[in-house]
Amino acid sequence: MSADQTVFLNGEFLPIDQARVPVLDRGFIFGDGIYEVVPAYGGRLFRWPQHLARLRRSLGKIRIDNPLDDAGWTRLVEELIRRHPWRDQFIYLQVTRGVARRDHAFPKDATPTVFAMASELQPVPTAQREHGIAAITLPDERWLHCDIKSISLLGNVLARQAAVDAQAVECVMFRDGFLTEGSSSNVWMVRHGTLFGPPRDHLILEGIRVGLMDELCASSGVPMQTRPILREEVLAADELLVSSATKEIVPVTRLDGQPVGKGVPGPVYQRLFEAYQAAKRAA
Ligand code: PMP
Q1: How does strand 248-255 pair with strand 33-41?
Q2: Whose CB among 83, 190, 208, 214 lies 3.0–4.6 Å from 239's, allowing a Cys bridge?
Q3: Is the torsion defined by CA of 57, 60, 61, 67 positive or negative?
Q4: Residue 119: which of 77, 59, 169 has the closest Cα?
Q5: Half-sphere exposure of 150 (CA within 13 A, CB side)
């Protein structure tokens, strides 16, 4: 948190340390809400229509009426970016079902709480790009609606902490022996020059970088396949990558203490990373 951060809360822009939410907000009580994270490079939103579409889908899936139309969201987010000095930023958006007497069932007349905040987007540390990161494998113990970008993130929080406790940066999760994703990223496997990603179903969040990866593979001539991926295949991968709004694409070079492939960032990573930077420049 930076003292000069301005946030948006329910129609108002105010300093972050003055923003307050009532204790009966269902986001606080039940984790009953959804969120988005959108990067902006040089003041320009990156893949904003895709983020807006996912925001609408998440709201629809948990049956919260969209509190703003697309133009309203765009105005809000552009104003937040304008109010902050950083060249590259990421915007966090959150909508909860609002404030109501504590009862699991939906309240009849609550107004959704709308919160938005801008933060400086720090580049991925050079050491991570040059040497890759360490990850651990974990069973995926989350619920069965991982496609919703829900603020109920306890399973993801525990998974990330398990990685940190093991001196790793991220985890690679498996459900019933098949790859799902990381605690806050999508996971990709490379074998024999092809990039493989797991099915885009309810067991993972379809990251905005998933659609981008399709385009980057096409533009850089990397074959790509979406299909169930066995744990054994991941353990024998030539390369592993993780992707997210804030990390872009990062190579995983150690998994459970063992080198992935040659133990250094591989050629497919290098090509996709360069294609990613070109996509940012072109946006
Ligand atoms: N999966 C999970 C569980 C995540 O939290 C994230 C990042 N929010 C992603 C995937 C990647 O999504 P995106 O590319 O939109 O950042």
Answers
A1: unpaired
A2: 190
A3: positive
A4: 77
A5: 23
Last residue of a domain, one of 97, 120, 143: 120
Locate the ligand 1 atom nearest the alpha carbon of residue 183 and give its number: 3
Average confidence (pLDDT) over 86-108: 98
Residues 82, 56 share a domain: yes
User: What does the alpha-carbon distance between residue 185 and residue 174 come to, in Å, rounded to a whole number?
Assistant: 14
Q: How far apart are CA 27 and CA 94, in angstroms?
A: 9
Ligand 1 and 152: CB distance under 6 A: no
Task: Evaluate if residue 4 carries a pLDDT over 90.
Answer: no
**Nearest protein CA to atom 13 of ligand 1, as residue:** 207
Active site residues: 149
What is the Å distance from ligand 1's center to 55 Cα? 13
Q: Is the CB of 58 under 6 A from ligand 1?
A: no
Q: Could you tell me the distance, in angstroms and rounded to a whole number, from the CA of residue 204 to the centre of ligand 1?
A: 9
Give residue-wise pLDDT tens across range 236-273.
Answer: 999 999 999 999 999 999 999 999 999 999 999 999 99
Backbone angles phi, psi at 149, to 5 degrees: -85, 75
The model carries a pTM of 0.97
